[in-house]
TrEMBL record, chains A, B:
It comes from the Eukaryota. This is UDP-glucuronosyltransferase. It is found in: Membrane. It is a single-pass membrane protein. The keyword Transmembrane applies. InterPro entries: UDP-glycosyltransferase, UDP_glucos_trans, UDP_glycos_trans_CS. The chain crosses the membrane at residues 493-516. Its main location: membrane. Belongs to the UDP-glycosyltransferase family. It catalyses: glucuronate acceptor + UDP-alpha-D-glucuronate = acceptor beta-D-glucuronoside + UDP + H(+). Residues 1-22 form the signal peptide.
Length: 527, 527
């Protein structure tokens, strides 16, 4: 399969210098783990000879000012969500999840987080306003003659900026302020498409479908209140009163979707959605020497790696101790990405690291299990390398992502509320280590995922450059984008035809009645 | 762009001998023009080292018994639609269309053809029964250990046979017994997806949407009566009473769809639909010497080519004379594929041929206009080569296909009822020749169509072999295939939630009433 990827890369090397001579790409990224995968895409675009300009906030906590492969415009921002706020929020979510029921946890997230989300999008809105109000910056952006805007629409600023600058738009997307992106563009029957945080699969019982429908209605209200209204005000101010924000949002030329149908459940899609799930995955590079030595020291038992992602830097002390104690009982070696204070129960077999080359480790033959929080990036990497997962989801889509692996027999999920009880953590790891089906199923998914006519990254690059070459991809946008809801759902047509049928029946009824009356009346007269 | 196709072919040459060592493919084709494009796919599969076995009827009028690249099982068939019947039917349709109004023409087709369609599918059903009843044939088919069944589901026999033999199924498809194939598998909002023969675009007025809805209901009834019931009886007989034919029909692993979104309007699609529109197109080969000499003799004026497809071998004499007379007035040379008797008015500039290398002619720089009936194959070829079209649609989807080109400014449509009046034919050809926008628009569509990360043919071959490698593509089939209509549309959930809301309101109402009664009664007593 590697040969296929190599050949595919070769093909692009032959093809692309001819089809694209290095364009200008304006990038409006989203922070946090979203930046990590945007950054990978940017490095690939840079290696294809494109000039990348990134708009970042002066308070950005991930996006460095300038770099070897991109230049930046730094916008002085009064405030923007920073890493410390996120870390504190994570700890409070973990505390809550440990005590809460799934329903309560959802209500907590939906209602309790509504205020936080509204504030979050308001902050992003202020940031976008600051960009457009900076006349000097806008002049420079206009002068640069960009070919395309590349953005992650988890933040709503990119589409507004693209419209203001009148530029084609490409999404690197999974979430759309913040509903699952497909819901914005493709028909999405709630009967078999699980809503984020529903913890359902695509095969639902009646009451799961009821729950899914309720969650759908709630999430639609959340999106409306927390985001649409906020951004609509900015549209009104800078784009005129006729510009509907949501229409703008779903009018992107190409949607590079960070999933594929080995990971996600098959569902309706649209012609301008390009699936690039696993685009960040690649064959493993050799590990740094100290890591390689540590991994090799595991002997036949192999290695377990654990990471709870970008946001979760530390865990409550008792939970961390429980996890460390479980690891200490295993014959495997453990590499644990953990920034919190060192747990007291940490065994000699466990190495705490601030950061680890996750893709290279997952591709190492000695790595047997991945303990993960279930972020999309990590799950796709586990899937690419065929490594079974013990899932410890924290918030948002993480539980859903892990359910997709569990449903296919490749993962075991623990919840924060039970992970530190009855040796659950230790038992789960031992089960995934000792039951061959977990690994076999992940290897099967890996084979399916890798068997594509073109790699996800090459596909993504092709379509970004397609939009640059053709100044958009209008021919792939459905006419439905320009339709009112009642036209789209044929409500007016149904009413008209229903009325027509009713009229016909009524006419026949009246005619028959008149006929009866006419035929009866003479009798009365005769009498 | 040709370099891209070459490289892509090179890539497949490198990749595919490793990934597929020549499998066994069972082919159940549809006759007529459908066989032409199936044949092209089969030749490509043969060149990739696969063994092809075709099931054909002893009355087949297109599929030859054995060949250098496939072997056949010939089934003695009592009757099957033959070429003569088709030719006669075509002439009667042409006669009708010349006199009819569009609405009448549709009613004629829908109602008048219903009997013919039912008879047609009954004949195919008998043919399938004859295959399954032939125990020796079935034993041979089982012994051959086929990897996949490849079929065109315009005839309903393929899916039944695949199920009977328990084999994975790939479709080479545009029509599904005989509705547009997307309607079988993907959500299809009638508000912007024009029904076959509606002659609408994806931007419809209110009354066009009403018309489209009526046509949709009629076509669904037609499919049900003319085909579903016929094939269901065969399912009941050979697969048991629990097997629903339509569920079987939409359960194919991969749908190789003979359109793309440069030709067709963007619309919802599904993960297991692969677009291979234009897969039959390729760079032109040199013409036979006599044709090349004829083409070159046209000088700066260039050449017009005309073909009304596989089915229309001749036209009514007066219409043929009118067309020939119009051609005779032009300075261009004309190549006309026509099997009828030589029109009296034929000019010296017009060459009548029984057959022409259409793809090679369309790719010739001297060819200026293509006079076509609007079959999918021809329209895709015109689009690939960027040649503007004068359309003369005869029946079924031909007018719709041409409307897709006309809507994008690449074609001018004439109807059979007006083609021979007021020099319409001559005027249309002169307009398309002299107005540069026609050619520019077709060239733009051609550029868009050719700009794909992998050629349609390579994509089709990849996915056929994918199904062979993985014994199906179950992971790409949506869960909706196994759902009842009321679950899929959440009717039960809506009723349940509606009922629950009603119950809550009713309870509140009763409680308030009780409360009022309790609070009012003492007053009454006091009085």
């Amino acid at each position: 399969m590697r040969l296929m990827y190599l050949c595919s890369a070769l093909l692009l090397l032959i093809l692309l210098p001819r089809t694209c001579q290095g364009g200008n790409i304006l990038v409006f990224p989203t922070e946090g783990s979203h930046w990590i995968n945007m950054d990978i895409l940017l490095q690939a675009l840079h290696s294809r000879g494109h000039n990348l300009t990134i708009i970042r906030s002066s308070k950005s906590w991930y996006i460095k000012d300038n770099s070897t492969y991109y230049s930046t415009y730094t916008v002085p921002a009064e405030r923007i969500i920073d890493e410390e706020i996120i870390t504190r929020a994570m700890l409070s979510i973990i505390d809550f999840e440990r005590g809460g029921l799934p329903l309560m946890s959802f209500l907590h997230f939906s209602v309790g987080m509504l205020g936080a989300l509204t504030e979050f999008h308001t902050t992003v809105g202020e940031y976008v306003s600051a960009i457009i109000d900076d006349r000097e910056l806008i002049r420079m952006l206009n002068d640069t003659k960009f070919d395309v805007v590349l953005t992650d629409p988890c933040w709503g600023g990119g589409p507004i900026l693209a419209k203001y600058l009148n530029l084609p738009l490409v999404y690197n997307v999974r979430w759309l302020i913040p509903e699952e992106a497909h819901f914005g563009i493709a028909p999405s029957p709630i009967s078999y498409i699980p809503i984020a945080q529903s913890r359902c699969t695509d095969k639902m019982s009646f009451f799961q479908r009821v729950k899914n429908m309720i969650l759908y209605v709630v999430s639609q209200m959340q999106v409306h209140v927390a985001a649409k209204e906020v951004y609509q005000k900015i549209c009104d101010k800078y784009l005129g009163p006729d510009e509907d924000f949501y229409q703008l949002l779903i009018d992107a030329d190409i949607w590079l979707m960070r999933v594929d149908f080995v990971f996600d459940y098959p569902r309706p899609t649209m012609p301008n959605v390009v699936y690039m799930g696993g685009f960040q995955c690649k064959p493993p590079k050799p590990l740094p020497q100290h890591l390689e030595e540590f991994v090799q020291s595991s002997g036949e038992h192999g290695v377990i790696i654990m990471s709870l992602g970008t946001f979760v830097n530390e865990l409550p002390a008792d939970m961390a101790n429980e996890i460390a104690a479980a690891f200490a009982k295993l014959p495997q070696k453990v590499i644990w990405r953990y920034k919190g204070s060192r747990p007291d129960t940490l065994g000699n077999n466990t190495l705490l690291v601030d950061w680890m080359p996750q893709n290279d480790l997952l591709g190492h033959p000695k790595v047997k299990v991945f303990v993960a929080h279930g972020g999309t990036n990590g799950v796709q990497e586990a899937l690419y390398h065929g490594v079974p997962v013990v899932g410890l989801p924290v918030f948002f889509d993480q539980h859903d992502n892990l359910i997709r692996l569990e449903d296919r027999g490749g993962a075991k999920i623990l919840t924060l509320s039970t992970v530190d009880k009855d040796n659950n953590f230790l038992k789960a790891i031992q089960e995934v280590l000792n039951e061959p089906s977990y690994r076999m199923n992940m290897q099967r998914l890996s084979r399916l995922h890798r068997d594509q006519p073109i790699t996800p990254m090459d596909n993504a690059l092709f379509w970004i450059e397609f939009v640059m070459r053709h100044k958009g991809a209008a021919h792939l946008k459905p006419a439905s984008l320009r339709m009112s809801w009642y036209s789209y759902h044929s409500v007016d047509v149904a009413l008209f035809l229903g009325g027509a049928v009713l009229l016909v029946f009524l006419t026949i009824f009246i005619l028959i009645r008149c006929l009866c009356n006419t035929m009866c009346k003479p009798k009365v007269k005769r009498e």
